[in-house]
Design brief:
This is Diguanylate cyclase (GGDEF) domain-containing protein. GO terms for molecular function: cyclic-guanylate-specific phosphodiesterase activity. One of its GO terms (biological process) is phosphorelay signal transduction system. Strand 5, helix 6 and strand 6 form a beta-alpha-beta unit. Helix content is 52%, strand content 19%. The protein is of the alpha/beta class and 277 residues long. Helix 1 packs across helix 2 and helix 3 packs parallel to helix 5. It is globular and about 65 Å long. It binds ligand C2E and calcium ion (3 copies).
Length: 277
């Protein structure tokens, strides 16, 4: 048994070294591709569930390596955060998203752009100045921009974060708490932060079809939103049944494969024209 244990340890260590090499290589390639065509954005529509009206889109970063292979964001965002590269990446995402928003606004007046912001980015001292600068550069009002911040980062609730939220809100920007219900934070911060929207994590939407407990959590978040006067957006809607249940529960906004997959700007523009007819 002891020998077997040692064998497992060797395999474990080999795996660890392999992973580290793989990560180092990914990070090096990402750094190189940051200034190239390898990185681009896709946009997923967010709609009013009652009227079907297009409210906004969420920008999702995509990375296609030089060998043609796509690396999903879940595999490189974390690495980028650990290495600090997320700052440059995040700056790029924001700039590109606002450029594209500029052109989307010609087609859909009032459409908003939701951009994911990681804790590392958000915690930069000059984050709000950066955002303001990007908006000015595109000649855009802050009210067209929505920043999605995850609850799980553990930064929500401090005074510094609260101050930052208010500064961003002074620019007219709205703030959404992403993946709501999966983190560990207390509810009291929600009131202090004056966020605008809760995004029900897609794990709860997925459970709508399966179990009563899934329903209860979605219902609870929607009720919380109503009491605190926050918008509630359900993400990851994949079936008609999920959509129906969310509507009945009083959830007003949604996104998911059932409505549309994330698309590049060109595809999105085509989708918008078809959706409107
Ligand atoms: P997220 O912010 O929770 O984004 C939602 C994810 O769910 C996206 O995955 C989206 O493609 C996927 N999705 C949307 N509708 C459905 C559906 O109906 N069913 C299923 N199964 N999935 C759906 P994606 O694009 O792979 O992004 C994964 C995560 O990577 C994001 O989760 C976000 O945390 C992060 N991410 C993506 N782009 C950025 C970015 O520009 N900056 C930062 N900081 N993080 C990003
Ligand atoms: Ca998001
Ligand atoms: Ca989410
Ligand atoms: Ca997520």
């Amino acid at each position: 048994a002891k020998r077997q244990g040692q064998g497992q340890r060797v395999i474990f260590t080999q795996q660890l070294v392999q992973d580290m090499r793989h990560h180092a290589r990914l990070l090096r390639d990402l750094k190189q591709d940051l200034d190239s065509e390898g990185l681009f954005l896709e946009y997923q529509p967010q709609i009013d569930l009652r009227t079907g009206k297009l409210l906004g889109v969420e920008a999702l970063v995509r990375w296609q390596q030089r060998n043609g292979q796509r690396v999903p964001p879940d595999q490189f965002i974390g690495l980028a955060e650990q290495s600090g590269l997320i700052i440059r990446l995040g700056d790029w995402v924001l700039r590109q998203a606002l450029k594209d928003l500029q052109s989307l606004l010609q087609r859909v007046p009032g459409i908003r752009m939701a951009v994911n912001v990681s804790a590392v980015q958000f915690n930069q001292q000059d984050f709000e100045q950066k955002v303001e600068h990007c908006l000015l550069q595109q000649g855009l009002q802050g009210s067209y921009l929505d920043l999605e911040i995850t609850e799980s980062v553990g930064i929500l609730g401090s005074d510094a974060v609260e101050t930052k939220f208010h500064k961003l809100k002074d620019l007219g920007i709205t703030l959404s708490i992403d993946d709501f219900g999966t983190g560990f934070s207390s509810l009291s911060y929600l009131e202090r932060l004056s966020a605008d929207r809760l995004k029900i994590d897609r794990s709860f939407v997925a459970k709508l079809d399966a179990s009563a407990s899934g329903q209860r959590i979605a219902q609870m978040i929607i009720g919380l939103g109503q009491r605190l006067n926050l918008q509630v957006l359900a993400e990851g809607i994949e079936t008609e049944s999920q959509l129906e249940q969310l509507k009945v529960m009083g959830c007003h906004e949604g996104q998911g494969y059932l409505i549309a997959r994330p698309m590049c700007l060109n595809e999105l523009e085509g989708w918008i024209d078809a959706w409107r007819q």
